[in-house]
Design a protein that fits this description.
The complex is a heterodimer of chains A (422) and B (501). Chain A is mainly alpha-helical and 422 residues long. In chain A, 69% of the residues lie in helices and 4% in strands. In chain A, the strands form 2 sheets. Chain A has a 3-stranded mixed sheet. In chain A, strands 5-6 form a two-stranded antiparallel ribbon. Chain A starts with a strand and ends in a 17-residue tail after the last helix. With 501 residues, chain B is an alpha/beta fold. Chain B folds into 3 domains: 234 residues, 3-Layer(aba) Sandwich (Rossmann fold), CATH 3.40.50; 176 residues, P-loop containing nucleotide triphosphate hydrolases (Rossmann fold, 3-Layer(aba) Sandwich); 69 residues, no CATH class. The chains are: A mainly alpha (422), B alpha/beta (501).
Chain lengths: 422, 501
């Protein structure tokens, strides 16, 4: 028997791909450093004043005063340091962390630049971040619940819209709480319809979702323009006011952001926790995930794949319906055509960015909520950037996050595939 | 527990998969169920495990007629099946996979994973099946995955265990371990059914043999007295020859020379590491090795489907390291890919269309943008007859063919033109004995016509039957070279497991 040499595998080749990524990240970080120094550092003067206390707060803490130009230069310096560090010994797990921290620093430098010479309520913005994250988080959660059983849910947008409409209509007639119940029920109904289309009748999942979206958009627009404009009392729902949690709501910064919110914010947070427990710590959750990963295996073990999908997609619809009610009962008290404005799709992005995990989806939703409220507040600060560009902020954040930062998120293995039982 | 199948008939539309099958399964015994692909073995066992409902006939458990409405009923009755393609969720842990469907739970539907872990350990200890309950399935070797499947079935307190082609994915050493496990299960009083088309395995391990052909039981055998030839004849329906008739090879000049080739896999790891060898005209070089040791990447690099990061491939005197797949094809390289359904065929195309997938773009099948369909069809018909692909028409869709016929179709397309080099990966995977014989004969004929042949296979029998020289790949390297005539299974097996003598 002739044996050839068996020298160990060289690690040099394995390093190749990693080295390239290192360089790319290093260049991005250095580019950002230059950008911050030139665009923010050189053009700002005076101090940026960030107010941390809201008028109603029990405990007041002093404002945060940041000298704008020095801060920008410090950020630029840090970014340059990160960038060089990437070239020297980057790669591996820390690479994306540093890129994330870098982007965060750029955002703070941008805020400081925009606020320079003025004052800005940071706590107020964080509070509205939380509020604006709610429909996105609930949309993302609905996505997680249905994609975990391998049903791609493009229909979240339609479910949000249906929930918003039902909330306004039913809420106007029968009161806010019944309005929420109605929104949840209508969301669940569309969830069930989606399940029937894609699970039983194996309609293409994207097409079925788009069909539901178009149907809901058309129907609600028609009714609101033809009926609700004539009978305005049908579109005048009560709005849920914030509920203060005793003691906790008196804390500075954290109080107004987390504990002085309305039912929808608390509801979203609780749902995220319950969904996490359900998916990862219960028997039903284990079975649901098995159905999403390997339906055939689940079937051979006596788990009813179709039933599991119906139940989870219907629950997902109910969650989205609740999220939809936020637009009317949790916000403005009336329904307007197409008022969800693509939040359902952003919710899907939040689901992907959050790696199909409820808590991840919530975190991603907060990022989008932040972009959304930033745009709102910046319009007030009169920055030189046109407001049309600012309005793009949430969507740009979506693209940057989904395309650039996610890396290798892995969806459930059977995602989007119908299961054909023989 | 004894089980009797009485008069089972199962139809799928017009196709009769099982016809009036009678079979008994007894406790403390290993029943070998032998049959070619498509003989109806898997259908029969899916009937027994509750996945299919029979159209006629009944299942008797300890003499009592029983009806299964789904997999759950069969599991509750104590029948467990280990499928050919493991039914494991890759991202779950061992313990999660074992308990799935019968989970221990606490309050609020809480999954009691600690108890699950303990139960997995207990069963493992009882039957000598050692696994780490917290290991993630996709990170453990197939041999361990199979153990998990067995634990899964035992966890559901199965008394009857059905194994569908259990050895297909195992190394020779793992097969020995596996035989040890099922023998100990038999001695513990379980009833076992062992489904396979590999004759020597069934003779080694079974206590009783039933042979299935065309959906019917065509015979029984006693492993103590039966011979491989008898069983094969029963299985195929005609006498089969096992040895490939071949004259000694007359190797001539090198057709393909591989020098220090280095190739990465999809995960950016080095899959082929510094491999050098040559294939000469008129010889068959076999590459043996357990699946996943770089063979796939090597073949892809040779055929132009994956780029090499270092080294070179020389065809005659031309360096083709960076040549396109089409250029290599034009030079006279034929490639039978390892997965016929994903890479060899387009299943929703007709046989005629599949036959010109590699040559549609040029004369005589097309001129400019115009296809000459009549020409394609007559040529396809000629080649299909020539290579004995069983079909009624060239307009049939490829996915209507059986696995063996699909493979013959791919082999026919690749070998029906004037070729210099044949690279065939798993040329007979999942193919019935009759078709294997035929494909082997054609490969040897090509060799004798001075084609350089490279065979990559995980089946040692195939490597030994076809090759003149055998190279063994282990972790991306060629670790050993043998003269095929002199090499023994034990030597090859050791080299495949990475042991260097």
């Amino acid at each position: 028997m002739a044996v050839t040499d068996t020298a160990p595998v060289t690690t040099a080749d394995i390093e190749l791909a990693r080295r390239r990524q290192k360089k790319v990240n290093g260049v991005i970080l250095l580019g950002l450093a230059v950008f911050v120094a030139v665009a923010f550092g050189a053009t700002s003067e005076g101090n940026a004043v960030f107010r941390l206390t809201l008028p109603r707060d029990a405990i007041s803490i002093p404002n945060l005063v940041v000298p704008a130009a020095p801060y920008a230069y410090i950020v630029a310096g840090l970014l340059a340091f990160f960038g060089i560090r990437q070239f020297m010994r980057g790669g591996g797990r820390s690479t994306n962390v540093f890129l994330g921290i870098g982007l965060l620093l750029v955002v703070t430098a941008f805020l400081t630049w925009a606020t320079a010479g003025k004052s800005f309520s940071l706590t107020g913005m964080l509070e509205s971040t939380m509020v604006r994250a709610v429909p996105i988080a609930l949309g993302g959660l609905a996505g997680v619940l249905s994609e975990r059983v391998a049903v791609v849910n493009i229909a979240i947008e339609g479910m949000l819209l249906a929930g918003a409409f039902a909330g306004a209509l039913i809420g106007s007639v029968l009161g806010g709480f019944v309005g929420i119940l109605g929104a949840v029920a209508i969301g669940g109904l569309f969830g069930f319809i989606l399940a029937a289309l894609v699970v039983t009748h194996r309609v293409d999942q994207i097409i079925a979702g788009v069909a539901i979206n178009l149907f809901v958009l058309g129907l609600t627009s028609y009714v609101s323009s033809q009926v609700l404009t004539k009978y305005t009392w049908l579109n005048n729902a009560p709005v849920f006011r914030p509920i203060d949690i005793p003691l906790l709501s008196d804390l500075p910064v954290i109080g107004p952001v987390l504990f002085r919110q309305n039912l929808f914010v608390y509801g979203a947070l609780i749902m995220v926790l319950v969904a996490t427990y359900y998916l990862f710590h219960t028997r039903s959750g284990l079975r649901a995930r098995a159905v999403g990963e390997h339906p055939e295996a689940a079937d051979t073990l006596g788990i009813d794949v179709y039933r599991t999908r119906y139940i989870n997609v219907t629950i997902a619809g109910m969650v989205a319906g609740f999220g939809g009610a936020w637009f009317t009962l949790g916000s403005v008290g009336r329904f307007d055509e197409g008022m969800t404005g693509g939040r359902g799709y952003i919710g899907l992005a939040a689901m992907i960015f959050g790696r199909w995990h409820p808590v991840g989806a919530l975190m991603a939703a907060l990022v989008f909520g932040f972009a959304d409220s930033l745009q709102q507040k910046l319009a007030i600060l009169h920055t030189p950037i046109p407001s049309e560009f600012l309005a793009m902020a949430p969507y740009i954040a979506t693209i940057v996050l989904v395309a650039g930062l996610i890396g290798r998120a892995r969806p459930p293995a059977a995602d989007g595939q119908p299961y054909i039982k023989e | 527990m004894d089980i009797e199948l009485r008069g089972i008939t199962k139809r799928f539309g017009p196709v009769v998969a099982n016809s009036d099958v009678n079979l008994t399964i007894r406790a403390g015994e290993i029943l070998g169920l032998l049959g070619e692909n498509g003989a109806g073995k898997t259908t029969l066992m899916n009937v027994l495990s509750g996945l299919y409902r029979p159209d006629e006939g009944e299942i008797l458990i300890d003499g009592k007629p029983t009806r299964f409405e789904g997999a759950g009923d069969a599991i509750r009755a104590g029948i467990g099946m280990v499928h050919q393609h493991f039914m494991l969720v890759p991202v779950f842990t061992v313990a999660e996979n074992v308990v799935l469907g019968v989970e221990p739970t606490g309050r609020l539907d809480h999954l009691d994973i600690a108890t699950a872990r303990e139960q997995v350990r207990a069963i493992g200890a009882e039957h000598g099946l050692v696994v780490d309950p917290d290991a993630i399935i996709e990170e453990v070797p197939v041999g361990v995955q199979q153990r998990v499947e067995i634990i899964k079935v035992l966890f559901r307190s199965a008394d009857v265990l059905i194994f569908d082609e259990p050895t297909a994915v195992l190394t020779p050493q793992e097969v020995e371990d596996f035989f040890g496990i099922i023998r100990s299960l038999r001695d513990a009083g379980k009833a076992l059914v062992f489904i396979t088309h590999k004759l020597f395995e069934i003779l080694e391990v079974a206590d009783r043999i039933s042979v299935l052909r065309g959906g019917k039981i065509v015979g029984e055998g006693d492993p103590k007295t039966a011979t491989e030839a008898e069983l094969a004849e029963m299985m195929v329906g005609r006498p089969v020859s096992f040895t490939v008739d071949k004259k000694p090879a007359v190797p001539r000049r090198p057709m393909i020379e591989v020098r220090n080739l280095k190739v990465m896999n999809d995960r950016h790891e080095v899959a082929v590491n510094d491999v050098s060898f040559a294939v000469r005209a008129g010889e068959v070089v076999g590459i043996a090795g357990v699946q996943g040791n770089g063979q796939t990447e090597l073949v892809e690099a040779l055929t132009g489907l994956r780029s090499a990061i270092a080294g070179s491939v020389v065809f005659h005197d031309e360096d083709i390291t960076h040549a396109s797949a089409r250029h290599r094809h034009k030079l006279g390289m034929a490639h039978v890919p390892e997965d016929r359904q994903r890479e060899g065929l387009i299943e929703t195309f007709t046989l005629a269309e599949n036959m010109v997938l590699d040559s549609y773009y040029d004369e005589p099948y097309s001129t400019g943008i115009r296809m000459h369909w009549p020409k394609v069809e007559t040529e396809a018909a000629r080649i299909i007859t020539d290579f004995d692909v069983r079909t009624s028409s060239v307009f049939e869709l490829a996915d209507h063919l059986s696995g063996g016929n699909q493979q013959k179709l791919v082999v026919a397309r690749e070998m029906s033109r004037d070729i210099q080099v044949l690279i065939a990966s798993q040329p007979t995977r999942g193919v019935d004995v009759g078709s294997i014989e035929y494909i082997h004969k054609r490969i040897i004929a090509a060799r004798d016509a001075e084609v350089g042949v490279l065979i990559v296979s995980t089946e040692l029998d195939e490597i030994r039957a076809l090759s003149d020289r055998v190279l063994v790949m282990y972790r991306g390297r060629v670790v050993a070279e043998f003269d095929a005539a002199a090499a023994t299974v034990a030597e090859l097996g050791l080299a495949m497991a990475g042991a260097t003598a």
